[in-house]
Amino acid sequence: MNTKTKIGFAKFIYRCLRLVGFSQHRVITRNGVRFDADLAEGIDLSLFLFGSFQKWVIDGTILPRKDDFCAIDIGANIGAICLPLAARHTKARIIAVEPTDHAFKRLNRNIELNPALQPRIRTVQAFVGDGTQSTTSMVAYPSWRLDNTAGTKHEVHLGEAHEVTCPTISIDGLAQQESLDHLDFIKIDTDGHELDILKGAKQTLQRWRPVVVFEFCFYENEKRGYTFDDFTAYFSALNYDIYLCDGKTRIPDEAAARRVVPELGSCDFAALPR
Fold it and tell me: Which residues contact 189 (CB under 8 A, 6 or more apart)?
């Protein structure tokens, strides 16, 4: 199912909830984690209805279960991934990176609602790329509104555009800045910037061999001149293989990726060290 169709279903569900009297704004608790939810936001509605967002990442078998779990969450948005991960690992250390003011404020609000988890998560407002720059300006899409509010929408996935200016840092630079001594997991969800981000992570992947989960869609990567084979070549050179997030179904090339990535949609993949 492509993203536009998913958003269409979500809008229908949102309208039904409003018609039967559900308030748009509410604090919800899901799996022991509290969120300040706006049901007119796509991610929030998923949390409200299903108790999680991208459940296959949080509950899957590809991540190590260890008290001192360490992760970098790039494109952390409102904390739908980093907060449940922090709850699962008692001594977790998670660096949550989000560039947009809109999502960064909501991320910090959700962390404040979970004081027991707050020491386990550090938030960083920055873009992540293949190098370090003092400031970068670009358009990001942190919000999927379901209430037909005005705003510039992405032509395919219908995310709401936000102009952002903030520093850029690489994963290698971030690991050094945060004085990491190990790293178990990297999540990258950045609307087509994933390969540029990975280019700035080679030292980190070589040193600590973390699991990497990244989103891939053909239409955003084709804009930048990238193919799925560029990802397989990158990871193969570092002795990684790419799988679906079940950790079992290997995706060796572009042809295999096209069989699982919806047209005008996206799919999460897991890069696992050999």
Answer: 74, 75, 77, 214, 215, 268
Angle at 236 between CA 194 and CA 174, to 5 degrees: 40
d(CA 255, CA 260): 9
β-sheet with 127-129: strand ranges across: 127-129, 160-170, 133-143
Q: What is the residue range of 66's domain?
A: 54-273
* Per-residue pLDDT tens digits for 183-230: 999 999 998 899 999 999 999 999 999 999 999 999 899 999 999 999
pLDDT tens readout for residues 35-84: 999 999 989 999 999 998 888 788 778 999 899 999 999 999 999 999 99
- Tell me how many domains the chain contains: 1
Please name which of 33, 71, 69, 72 lies closest in space to residue 52, comparing C-alpha atoms.
33
226 close to 197: Cβ distance less than 8 angstroms: no
At 269, which helix (H) or strand (E)?
A: strand 267-273
Domain contains 39: no
206 in Cβ contact with 181 (< 8 Å): no
Q: Would residue 225 be called left, alpha or beta, if left means φ above 0 and alpha means ψ between -120 and 50 degrees?
A: left
Helices then strands, counting H and E runs in the chain, come out as: 11, 12
With contact defined as beta carbons under 8 Å apart, do 96 and 114 qualify? no
**Does a structural domain hold residue 19?**
no
Radius of gyration from C-alpha coordinates of the chain: 18
Q: Please spell the DSSP secondary structure of 52-94, one letter per residue.
A: -SSHHHHSSSSS---TT-EEEEET-TTTTTHHHHHHHSTT-EE
